[in-house]
Amino acid sequence: MSPPVSPPSINVTFCLNASGRHLPGPIGLAVDLTVDGLKAGGGRRALFLGGGGAAQPGPSPTRSLTLVVPNGGTPQCRTLPVVLRAHIQLDCGEDNVCVPDLHLEATA
Fold it and tell me: pTM for the whole thing?
């Protein structure tokens, strides 16, 4: 019997940190990584091992997940770019006055 073959995979590692003016002390950062979020119908082309797409980082702001491409994927699937998208939800209070001080940095 031949040994089991591991599916192709990508390690996804990210670190989160928040700083700025007017922060109310320690804040929590919730993360939800989605694969093929806008793909209509059909099965996903990739998935996170252990179902880990959502994460609430603890004391360490660094998190690592493994993204798996079942059945080896197609050549098109293996060459698709990774896209970073941030949806910022504002809570500006009753006076609707916001004091943004947001800086995003991404490295690949």
Answer: 0.37
**DSSP 3-state of 32:** strand
> Residue 98's pLDDT is what?
64
Q: What angle do CA 98, 103, 105 make, to 5 degrees?
A: 155
- How does DSSP classify residue 2? P
Quote the DSSP letter at residue 67.
E
Q: Is 25 left (phi over 0), alpha (psi -120 to 50) or beta?
A: left
Backbone torsions φ then ψ of 47, nearest 5 degrees? -150, 160
> Residue 9 to residues 67, 95, 102: CA-CA distances in angstroms?
5, 48, 32
**pLDDT band of 57, cuts 50, 70, 90:** very low
